[in-house]
Specification:
Helix 9 packs antiparallel against helix 10 and helix 10 packs across helix 11. By secondary structure, the protein is an alpha+beta fold.
Length: 289
């Protein structure tokens, strides 16, 4: 498994990286952690004449909260997020998910930017970004922001334009009485999910749900946002009947494919079960029953 020949570039600045992408056009590909791209190159499932490694560019690996927004640099390693006190204390949905991503080797090399920008519906972070209402910041000829809900266009296809680089992920800081959870079923360590669900909720003073977000992993050609299920929850008390109905609606939104991990029916049922579990845990973390 040897990839086709390519030229390797390692720019020191973002502007230099953007110039390389502009110069080489469709023959160039951004390399971050390489945990998805390099295996595809080795298997000859993809081929590029130029790889632009952005790992040396400063300022792309930050984790900080400013003015009510969590800002995560695109080159932040999954392992760095796993170790972050800020993530563990304020963003439990991320703390749930990161230890479930592949294995320690992948988490030590893989980046959150690569995970969300690859457009793989089996990756864990995209569904979480949908549930959290995240925004992706991209740099090309100018900087622009893309809501996660508008980012995924198809299998391995995103809203990033040719020559653009994802630089940062911005997540609204959760208000008081918020909670999130990520529930995942996989066959073995390192495997993609049979099904997985990300849930984020905020409760009002009376205990009813004020805001909800639900994202599904490996449930279609793109990460799936269960918008109808989330809207159904708003204004309702998070009792078992409400949770069960929302889980049913979320599962109905999924359109998985049958493979060695299970049939379509089995995967949809697991999406329902995992939505139920994630909703219960998110509500509990938000201070509900």
């Amino acid at each position: 498994m040897i990839p086709a020949a390519f030229d390797y570039h390692r720019p020191d600045t973002l502007d230099e990286a953007l110039k390389l992408l502009k110069r080489h056009g469709d023959e160039a590909k951004v390399l971050s952690g390489g945990m998805s791209l390099l295996p595809m190159l080795k298997l000859r499932l993809a081929s590029f004449a130029h790889l632009v490694d952005i790992g040396r560019i400063p300022g792309l690996d930050t984790i900080k909260e400013e003015k009510g927004v969590l800002r995560i640099g695109a080159m932040t390693r999954q392992a760095a997020l796993e170790r972050s006190d800020l993530i563990r204390t304020k963003y439990p949905i991320l703390a749930d998910a990161i230890p479930l991503i592949a294995d320690p080797l992948v988490r030590n090399r893989g980046t959150i930017g690569g995970n969300v920008a690859n457009g793989d519906p089996g990756n864990d972070q995209p569904a979480i970004m949908l549930a959290l209402g995240a925004t992706f910041v991209a740099r090309g000829s100018k900087e622009r922001s893309i809501p996660a809900s508008q980012f995924y266009k198809g299998l391995y296809s995103t809203a990033l334009a040719p020559g653009e680089i994802l630089t940062e992920i911005r997540i609204p800081a959760p208000p008081p009485k918020s909670g999130g959870a990520y529930a995942k079923l996989k066959r073995k360590t390192g495997d993609f999910a049979v099904a997985a669900v990300a849930v984020q909720v905020t409760l009002g003073k009376n205990g009813a749900i004020e805001r909800a977000g639900i994202g599904l992993t490996n449930a279609g050609l793109t990460p799936v946002e269960a918008v109808d299920a989330a809207k159904y929850l708003v204004g309702k008390m998070p009792d078992e009947k409400t949770i069960a109905e929302a889980a049913k609606m979320a599962a109905a939104k999924s359109s998985p494919s049958a493979d060695r991990r299970g049939s379509v029916e089995y995967k949809k049922e697991m999406a329902r079960v995992l939505t139920t579990r994630a909703l219960r845990k998110a509500v509990q973390r938000a201070g509900g029953n």
